[in-house]
Amino acid sequence: MTSWTDGYVADIGYTHGFYRELTPALLRFVGIAKGKRTSDLNKPSTYCELGCGQGFSANLLAAANPHIEFCATDFNPSHIVGARALASQAGSPNVRFFDQSFGDFVNEPSLPDFDVISLHGIYSWIAAEHRSNIVRFIRRKLKPGGIVYISYNALPGWSAAAPLRHLMFEHGRSQGGATGSRLRLALQFMDRVLASNARYFQANAAAKDGFERLKSQNHHYLAHEYLNEAWTLLYHSDVAREMGEAKLTYLGSAALLEELDAINLTADQQKVVAEVIDPTFRETVRDFMVNQQFRRDVFVKGSVPLSGLEALAGWQELRVALSTSRTEVPLKVKGSLGDATLRQEAYEPVLDALARGPRTVRQLLADQRVSALGFASLSECLTVLIGAGHLQPCLNQNGDEDRSICTRAFNDAVLHRAVLSDDLAALASPVTGGGVPVDRISQLFILAHRQKQADAAQYVWSVLEGQGQRLIRDGKTLETREDNVSELRDKFAIFSKRADVLNQLGIT
After folding, report:
1. pLDDT in tens, 289-307
2. Could you say which of 7, 120, 413, 499 has the lowest number of CB atoms within 10 Å?
3. Which segments of 120-241 are extended strands (E)?
């Protein structure tokens, strides 16, 4: 282990994920939904991501928000080399990447003060001294009214599975060697422990089910989650106290559905939570009710409520767009209590109006069917649909054209990488200022369209065949050309149903 890693997994890269919760428009919506004043991220702003990993989220957001200056750091120089290469290919002048530790970054002289500081998948996986440096950085560099997004492994939800992680980590440490090898051997060892009918698994059925699920997950993610030296489980009250040292107040969760009592808490649970006066303790009690395992917290520096008129104006000016095809939006959402059915008479008018394209709330209210719902029902519908990921908060329309130029260049870079790799699974939208999940095959369909290929399925097959790759259907590899092209035609038919939405989002 080299000293610069400080116990953090560094010999195997992190995943190239896009994390929706980092999106400026979504973070701003949390403030709107809570009726609190935050930085206006439609205007020229500054944004910092701490622990940016491969830098894909920062690169995508920079392309989709050219009015925002982005700075991002990750201590692993291999990550930063790749992040800078993608920024160069996308031609994004508004993002800078650093390979500094949090302790060094706080003293970086070229940094501005920030409207947003985000850290996803970092806080639970670093030592206490580095968490202290993060708090110090936030206190020094976040503007009044600024937003902090922070995610972490939470208690009590991790309690049952924590021993499983400990056993995997200790096995990996006892073996030594490269991380990938240690992970593979640790998973094999855990299979043997499970097969031996260990009493731990008898007493913790959830841990047994959890282990079966994790075996199919991305091994780069598993290495960073289970073999990292530092791994701290945190109660919300712990994090709220630490963020309080940076003058922050809890605003709400970026996981909007998790805050809806009706789908997460029984009537008795709601009564207990409502009786708790202290807001930090109330949030912690709520975590016990739902057995919270992972939190996505949003804090603000200076919690100031909007006046009634300001709050109403914020909602009326809010612009939203469907990111799921109208016909594919289910009238169900999942909460801690299971599936909940949405009221057809409330949601269908909203979905029908948005199927015609992005709309502000003011424009939605001009629709007779939508206005009949009333403002309270409409705001609830929008919050639920945004929380479920079928609807996205948008940036102001007057910047769509300029943003389209930047996102086109970024998306071109991603699409050309799709010829060789499935690492990058999102494209940038100039409408939402965020990312939209698009898998590799769909990206190749878009590339075929841009290259004016007459037969998209044949084009994609030529790419796959040239690399010796085959599709899988029902768990079986398709060996013949005919079967692969047939499967691609089926996939193209599904993709075509989504094309209108991608077009409305400025992607195709």
Report:
1. 999 999 999 999 998 999 9
2. 7
3. 142-153
